[in-house]
Specification:
34% helix; alpha+beta; 269 residues
Length: 269
C-alpha cells in the first residue's frame, strides 16, 4: 500500500509539473529540436487520420527541414500576416512552387505545438463539408486536413511585439508551412472509406496513405502512440508473420493440453 501511495504521489507531481510548465523566451524550441519536430508531425497526422466524414485519400504528413527554414525566417519578422512570397514568381522551396501557411500567436504560457494546431483544427466547427463553405474563419482547419499536403515544417519565435496583433506582448509566434499548399477552390479531401483512394503503390497506416519514396522517410510513427516507430512491410511478409505467430501460439496450447491430458507421456525434442 505504501508503494502504491508513493507511486500515485509521483504521478500527481509529474502531471502538475507538466501542466504547470510554460516556455520562456530562451526555452522555445528550435527547428532542429527532435521533440518539437515529432510533436508537429504527430498532432497534424492525428487530426488528419480522424476527419469526419472519413477521408479516402489523406496523405501521411512528414517533416521537411526546408519548410521549417521558411517558417523560421518569416517568424523572425514578428508579423501576424502571411508571407507574401509563398507563391510564384517567388520560389522558396526546391520541390514546391507554392507553399501553404498557418499562423498562431499567443502568450508564452499558453503556447504548445498541440494547443496551436488544435486551435487551427477546431475551426472545423465553422466548416460545412457538403457545401465547402465557412460560417467564420476556417482556412487554418482546411490546410491542416488538406489531403495532398504531405510535408510540413514549423518554427516558433519569441516576439516582444507582434505587428497587427498589438494586444500581445512578449509572446510566442508559431508558423507552419505546407507543401504542396491547400485552400484552393475544392474539397480538402475526398470523402470515402479510409485509404480507398490512395495513390498507386501506397500503403495504409492509421487511415493515412504512406509511401516511403514520396515521404522520403525510413520509418513512420503511430498516430495513437507517437513514440512507437513503425517499419512498413509488404502485405505478404505481414501475412507470414501473422500466420506464423498464430501457429506458434497454437503449438504451445496443444503442447500444454497434451501434457495435462497425458501427464506420463514423454515428449522428445
Amino acid at each position: 500500500m505504501r508503494v502504491l501511495q508513493v507511486t500515485l504521489a509521483l504521478a500527481v507531481w509529474m502531471v502538475s509539473f507538466v501542466s504547470g510548465y510554460s516556455y520562456t523566451a530562451s526555452t522555445l524550441p528550435d527547428t532542429d529540436d527532435e521533440e518539437f519536430i515529432r510533436e508537429c508531425v504527430h498532432i497534424h497526422n492525428k487530426f488528419r487520420s480522424k476527419v469526419k466524414p472519413a477521408a479516402s485519400d489523406m496523405l501521411y504528413m512528414t517533416w521537411d527541414p526546408a519548410l521549417a527554414n521558411v517558417a523560421k525566417a518569416w517568424a523572425r519578422n514578428c508579423r501576424f500576416e502571411h508571407n507574401s512570397q509563398l507563391k510564384p514568381p517567388y520560389k522558396l522551396h526546391p520541390n514546391f512552387t507554392s507553399l501553404g501557411e498557418n499562423i498562431w500567436s499567443g502568450s508564452l504560457s499558453l503556447f504548445s505545438v498541440s494547443s496551436a494546431v488544435t486551435a487551427w483544427y477546431d475551426e472545423v466547427q465553422y466548416y460545412d463539408f457538403s457545401t465547402q463553405s465557412c460560417s467564420q474563419v476556417c482556412g487554418h482547419y482546411t490546410q491542416v486536413v488538406w489531403a495532398d499536403s504531405y510535408k510540413v515544417g514549423c518554427a516558433v519565435q519569441f516576439c516582444p511585439k507582434v505587428a497587427k496583433y498589438e494586444a500581445l506582448s512578449n509572446g510566442a509566434h508559431f508558423i507552419c508551412n505546407y507543401g504542396p499548399p491547400g485552400n484552393y477552390p475544392t474539397w480538402p479531401y475526398k470523402k470515402g472509406a479510409t485509404c480507398s483512394a490512395c495513390p498507386a503503390h501506397d500503403n495504409c497506416l492509421d487511415n493515412l496513405c504512406v509511401n516511403t519514396k514520396r515521404d522520403n522517410v525510413k520509418r513512420y510513427y503511430s498516430v495513437e502512440y507517437p513514440g512507437w516507430p513503425i517499419y512498413l512491410r509488404n502485405r505478404y511478409t505481414s501475412l507470414f508473420l501473422i500466420v506464423n505467430s498464430v501457429l506458434l501460439i497454437l503449438s504451445v496450447l496443444i503442447t500444454l493440453w497434451v501434457k495435462h491430458k497425458y501427464p506420463n507421456l514423454i515428449l522428445l525434442d
